[in-house]
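Session log. Operator J.P. requested a structure for one protein chain; no other inputs attached. Running the standard single-chain path with token output.
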Amino acid sequence: MKIRGKASARTYRGALVALLAGAVLLTGCGAGGHTDRATEGGAQRADDGRQAPMPPDGGGRPAEGDRGEGREGEQKDDARRDLAQVPNYLSTFALDVDTASYGYARRSLSEGRLPAPDSVRPEEFVNSFRQDYPRPGGDGFSVTVDGARAGNGGGDGWSLMRVGLATRASTRTAERPPAALTFVVDISGSMAEPGRLDLVKESLGILTDQLRDDDSLALVTFSGEAETRLPMTRIDGNRSRIHDIVDSLEPSDSTNVEAGVRTGYDVAVEGRRRGANNRVVLLSDALANTGETEADAILERIDSSRREFGITLFGVGVGSEYGDSLMERLTNRGDGHTTYVSTSAQARKVFVDQLPAHVELRARDAKAQVAFDPQTVREFRLIGYENRAVADEDFRDDRVDGGEVGPGHTVTALYAVRLKEGASGHVATATVRWLDPRTRAPHEATGTVEAGALDGDLWAPRTAPRLQVSAVAAYFAQRLRGAETPGAPRLGDLAERAGSLARSTEDASVRQLAESIRSADALLD
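Structure written below.
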């Protein structure tokens, strides 16, 4: 059972009465500081007696066209604001469509080694798989909230709750605005390894043939120093020239990521086009060893170009040794995202199948906030998104950076939720807020879920297969980073469930997930 869309006024009025009563009981310790978040291995609780502050407007504006009108709309907003006052019942994070962590983990496991625990981000494992969420009719998001009991028969009361967000796909490549792409290519010595520079060159060749005539491309390379190989140039009439430059790339010496990124942004700013999607694409193993090797020295240049010119950063990671942390920090500051490629098939998927989603935007500075009902929820735990956390009171502060989401993307957040004994009725309301990419007008959409929707067995045949795939991916990631998750099966059982799902969904990516889980199980044993 799935519950979508905005909650009824009756639901909010009932929740409001209960919340006000609960707030009186829970504010005994007085002044409110920042709402605590769950840390790894610990859950957020209701009964620590602190009062969270009312979220300020923070420069944000009311969302346009998405809230109820008249008295009923006011009641919904009042209920939402009062829910925000209850301590420890909000979870807020910036949206993230990165998938690099999962791609790199798969590469590591295929080579017989476990990924470093700090490189494993569960949300990137989950977001690597196709979902079945309904798509909105226009720009913005649909919101789906569902779930099921975790473990065998629900264990000690834990359920897995899924918050799913989806954007409308592009129907034709011609619909998007022109692209002005500045490629920053790592040609350092470490890129000589098979599956690095050769794969980058293949990817750029594929992309050159896929871009439209009215798109533009620039190319910067870096090793010890950076060099502009091609200023911003229209594709029309220049494909052969671009292919020749790409084919001539050869590995050199050290890796000065700072020089490459700075020069890349200089070229992107100089060649930027009004009305186009201006983006820097960094292709590298991100193993910086020359110049400023820490991300902090590069972030300021990225941030200023993003704010002043709207130039975003897309990171494509390669290599058996990969600077995952550096790449992620750069793209987070550049309002972009990361992916990882290790095969020709993956490169084609990124640069051909997914190109519109990487170039065009449906939403800027998108954030999600999930408000749990203290009358039904005992505790909850967000799985992943630690480095995308946003202060609860900053949810509607549109100056606070969120995530950028393109057409056809889905974003999934999973929560381990423990309901109170005998709980029924409203469990949570999920709200997503974003800015229109062109007008910067804010919008919101909401979805709700009730206790009955979390009552089914997670592994029952009637449970949505894509919810089960999400659970497998999240549980797998948690195990790889050494975290315990309520209701999670052993890796051997998880591999069996993934194999069964691969057969029922006929999805090759789920079959690969099963293979990765088996590899990890063997290595851990």
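Operator note: The CA atoms of residues 180 and 523 lie 44 Å apart.
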